Amino acid sequence: MTINPSKTINMLKKITFLAILAFMSFSCQTDNEFDQLQQNNFDFTVLTKDLTGLSSRNSTTACYSTPLIAGQNYDAGRIDVEIVNESGTDYVYITYITNNEWIIKLTHLYAGDRDGIPETKKGNPKPGVFEKRMDYEANVISDFEVEYKIPASAFETCFAIAAHAELAKIDDKGNEIQRETGWGQGDQFEGDSWAMLFDFCKTDCPGYNDDATK
């Protein structure tokens, strides 16, 4: 069988051309899919508007407040708890507020029955899985303020709150100079860590009637 060199060259040119087209098409598709992946998974907007309509969670309306302790020894801010009625529905707001020397890098919140807090066998809390047990997410207001909004009906009259945070201390130029774990001050867990939790009762808020919501 005689092979025609001219036909072979033309065939190779066609194959090469088609391969280039396929590669270009795949590259465009890959770029588009990557852009979509970024948009779906990495792009977010920091909310700066207070959802309750109040000027700020940083106010005098909280019916309970406890210090936010960083690294066991630093007063980094506070945890505020309050109940706000919105369109006839009561919501519990649990807000992390730091002072101007600390910023909030990450928060984990548990609110509910004490027996439901995820813990290790040694009695230390597992903050990384707090939200996996609960149906709520954080609303980031700024580097200094993060709030959780939860329907008051989700809780018994009194319940436990374990407010964990990862905090960074900053200098007067805004540079991070120190990282610490933070907890809302309260009772220590039974384990060997310094993690803490505190109790809150909805009836501590003036004007709130738990029976009226049932």
UniProtKB/TrEMBL annotation:
Keywords: Signal
Signal peptide per UniProt: 1-30
Record flagged with keyword Signal: yes
Protein name: Uncharacterized protein
Organism: Lutibacter oceani
